[in-house]
Design a protein that fits this description.
The chain contains ten helices and no strands. It is an all-alpha fold. Helix 2 runs parallel beside helix 5.
């Protein structure tokens, strides 16, 4: 049963987690500044899809294997860190180009990219984040009763997380995209991409240097 005595605690906790600024929000903002609300929304949806992967992994016990194997966890952490740093470098390149986000009646140069690009970036950013593996492994079991089907309940809880996270992140994308003239300014776009790139690289370096829990 999804809605039980513990569901409301889960709802509050997952809502607070979703609205806490982190890598996901930064990536949505960066991609919105690059390609508009469409790119930001697609990035958010892809990030949300990664939650189902982590929920399934957690329920099937693969996460336990990763946590018990220092080598496997270290590899996963390093891959995730390298990917974050790569995204940060891409943001720095965008800052160097100084591309703004054009809207109706506002001049600027829009970089049109395939819809697959924000989808790929969002999905990989989430799946390659070992912190999400650890979080789901430690967090979800608290809301799964002994008699519940673990996989089904985990996926249902991930579905709730998916909805809340996307409501927040797509809202952020809409606000960023609605900034119009501000984002159309190459100066502001350069500043935003530079700041985002720096933060993503810092996140990646911190992740690479963290010890295994």
């Amino acid at each position: 049963m999804l809605v039980d005595a513990q569901f409301w605690s889960f709802l509050v906790a997952i809502t607070l987690l979703s609205i806490t600024p982190g890598v996901d929000t930064l990536l949505v903002i960066r991609n919105t500044s690059r390609g508009g609300v469409r790119d930001g929304a697609l990035t958010s949806l892809a990030i949300g899809c990664g939650l189902f992967v982590h929920a399934a992994v957690s329920a099937l016990g693969i996460s336990l294997i990763l946590l018990q194997s220092a080598w496997a966890f270290g590899v996963l952490k390093l891959v995730g860190a390298v990917y974050l740093i790569w995204l940060g470098l891409q943001a720095f390149l965008a800052a160097r180009r100084g591309q703004g986000l054009p809207v109706a009646g506002v001049s600027g140069t829009r970089r049109v990219v395939s819809a697959w690009k924000p989808l790929r970036e969002g999905l990989l950013s989430n799946i390659l984040n070992p912190k999400t593996v650890v979080f789901y492994m430690a967090f979800l079991p608290q809301f799964i009763a002994p008699g519940d089907p673990a996989l089904v309940k985990s996926l249902l809880l991930a579905g709730v997380h998916f909805v809340i996270a996307n409501l927040w992140q797509i809202g952020v994308a809409s606000m960023v995209g609605g900034a119009g003239r501000l984002l159309a300014s190459p100066v502001f776009a350069r500043w935003l991409n530079g700041l985002t790139g720096m933060v993503l690289i810092v996140f990646g370096i911190r992740l690479a240097l963290e010890r295994q829990p």
